[in-house]
Amino acid sequence: MKNLIVGQSGGPTAVINSSLFGVIREGMKQEKHIDHIYGMINGIEGFLKDRYMDLEKELTPEQLQCLRTTPGAFLGSCRYKLPEDLSDPVYPKLFQKFNALNIGYFFYIGGNDSMDTVSKLSRYAESHGESIRIVGIPKTIDNDLVLTDHTPGFGSAAKYVAASVAEIGIDASVYEAKSVTIIEIMGRHAGWLTAASVLARKFKEDNPVLIYLPEVPFCLENFMKDLEKAFTQRNNLVVCVSEGIHDKDGTFICEYAGEAGVDTFGHKMLTGCGKYLENYVKSHMNVKVRSVELNVNQRCSTFSQSLTDAKEASLAGSFAVSAALEGATGKMVSFVREEGPGYDLSCDLVDVNEVCNKEKPVPLNWITADGCDISDEFIAYALPLIQGNPAIPMKNGLPNYAYRK
Amino acid sequence: MKNLIVGQSGGPTAVINSSLFGVIREGMKQEKHIDHIYGMINGIEGFLKDRYMDLEKELTPEQLQCLRTTPGAFLGSCRYKLPEDLSDPVYPKLFQKFNALNIGYFFYIGGNDSMDTVSKLSRYAESHGESIRIVGIPKTIDNDLVLTDHTPGFGSAAKYVAASVAEIGIDASVYEAKSVTIIEIMGRHAGWLTAASVLARKFKEDNPVLIYLPEVPFCLENFMKDLEKAFTQRNNLVVCVSEGIHDKDGTFICEYAGEAGVDTFGHKMLTGCGKYLENYVKSHMNVKVRSVELNVNQRCSTFSQSLTDAKEASLAGSFAVSAALEGATGKMVSFVREEGPGYDLSCDLVDVNEVCNKEKPVPLNWITADGCDISDEFIAYALPLIQGNPAIPMKNGLPNYAYRK
């Protein structure tokens, strides 16, 4: 009988712990095949320093239950890139540690870079006759992994973005005076999350009136024209921009500000594109302007967790365990959306080497021709992913988060 | 039989519409005494332009139900200050309009400035023999109104702050590397909301490790020392600052940045104190630093609405109507917390002239002597106000907000 080890890597999401929950639950179910269920603390990086825990023994039933609605990464995370050269001594060191712990199954929950780790470890295992099975479980709010319909973490972040944008729109509409509110949303290279802001729109002329993704070059002059046109429709405008919008030369709009902004002590002031655009519009239009950076709460809000997303994240975790037991290795769990009128999702496996170090942008035909709005195809794609609210265990008026002290 | 009119004024909150709901519901109950229930659109300012609606006729039962969990100001708001001089022609103009609509009861939901409106209108009515009864219903996330235990709107904003700070703390703790996360929270003059961040702390050494309110002068030098001391306890530090922190000379910390920050086009870059402190710590300490401005979502989040706050906001609205029917005028509804071990609240009336244009700061003995933490007395005060989650009507995966198109 072999043991199982699981780790978390990269930026956290609202449901990365749901995937961890799925791995633990399935691991406990498979007690005939799996003995201990270990968790690496701070991913591969921590494991190399012998930091791990026995999840079955050390987690209380209450902690296990709370894990499902706790954001962040319960096990801690890392941004550790394994060397390209598979003859590097870190590999035998790692596998020695795996073998010392009698590990038969290795799971890594993460995004692009984490799948790179899964790829390297599985290639090393294959070429060195190591029998350990290595499977990746996708996670990223950015939704930019290829070969999967979407990624766990995106639905909850999209729901946070849509609800927050709707509420900021409500807040912005209470006064009669003309105003522009610019909302900066995460996503440096892919605009999936920013696109989700369209879900906040309740009727045709409703906010957000303008949406800009990094998939289309951004032009300040066109932006001002878009605003003027939008002002003919309504007095308070909400504009959503991806943090990664850039001009046709590839220069990020946030860099426009960073080049020259200095504070009283001469220190360079770094700000985002939202703040830059706020100042730009302020100095070009005689209207009230403000900017809101949704910031890290996008990826860690419990209250706006999507039940669909949480369930799918857990499913991805348990599917990975069953698949590994059936022999899968060098794979990533993927989501397949079945054709048809309803929303029907199933899990599959894809070659992890085909996933890592690639990025999936929003299809250009899901962005309107004028470059400042999102098409109905995206809405049909994204709407099922934000459905349902999980029951949140509460304590002292706040979500009862699971945590390692 | 007389009619009722209600308006909303000042910045919106998550539960200002619960108070509106309370007014409408009580008004409908009192059908023997109240005929029409009117709502001013954009407060006094809109009413002066004859903008109002019949809330009983024009609101569908679904809208009325959704009102309870819709943030913002359903009727629209204004920031309109009535002239100090009660012989100004705007007063007879207003009362002419009231009388034309056969208004017997006037309710204004708002903060400090709105109570100034209530004060002036009731003083004018008294001195001019107008029989209309005028009552204020408190609302402000800032919790800075005097003569009331707390204000509707504070509990939900406090819950948003506490939950968000806890989640940012979880997010910040996933990596091992030393880091500082600075969270900027609303409150220019009073630190109530920033103080609520202490509710996020799950155990003694937990984040937020440092909390700075505007009630105590802020000193950059001490701040750096506080950080260094905190780093001896843990690697990732979450620091909460009120937007209104200022030095001993009264200069806002956010002004330190605004004095010199300019972008590539020479435009002045305005940023908050959080961003300023981020840049300051970055240039003085070799650790990862980021800042998060919680921004407008603090006052308009549906998902983190406190059920206690929503119920009390509604109660304040219905109490105002009953009180006016019993003869009250020139009053504001206040909250009285009963002495004793449990949390027991009742409504009372206070002289609105004693409320307007005053501010209630956080008591200095609720701030620790070192000026960077909050005492247990505050926790005992604030904890009951964030309890309970309302059932949120949902539509397409998002809260079903009530809105005027």
Throw out a few tags for this protein.
seven-stranded mixed sheet, Rossmann fold, alpha/beta, homodimer, 13 strands, four-stranded parallel sheet, 405 residues, 18% strand
Q: Report the average pLDDT across residues of chain A.
A: 95
Sketch the topology of chain A as an H/E string, one letter per element: EHEHEHHHEHEHEHEHEHHEHEEHEE
Radius of gyration of chain A (CA) equals 23 Å
How many discrete domains of chain A?
Answer: 2
Structural class of chain A: alpha/beta
In oligomeric terms, what are we looking at?
homodimer
What is the total tally of β strands of chain A?
Answer: 13
Specify the number of helices of chain A. 13
Strand content of chain A: 15-25%
Describe this structure in words.
The structure is a homodimer of 405-residue chains. Chain A is an alpha/beta fold and 405 residues long. Chain A folds into 2 domains: 2-141 and 148-153 and 304-357 and 387-399, Rossmann fold; 154-299, Rossmann fold (3-Layer(aba) Sandwich), CATH 3.40.50. Chain A is 34% helix and 18% strand. Chain A contains 13 helices and 13 strands. Chain A has helices spanning 16-29, 43-47, 55-58, 61-67, 90-100, 112-127, 154-172, 192-195, 220-231, 253-258, 273-284, 307-325, 376-382, and strands at 2-8, 34-40, 52-54, 103-110, 133-138, 179-185, 210-212, 236-242, 288-293, 331-337, 345-351, 394-395, 398-399. In chain A, the strands form 3 sheets. A 7-stranded mixed beta sheet of chain A has the order 3-2-1-4-5-10-11, sandwiched between helices. Chain A has a 4-stranded parallel beta sheet with strand order 7-8-6-9, sandwiched between helices. The longest helix of chain A has 19 residues, at 154-172. Chain A is elongated, with a radius of gyration of 23 Å. At the A-B interface, α7, α11, β9 and β13 of A face α7, α11, β9 and β13 of B.
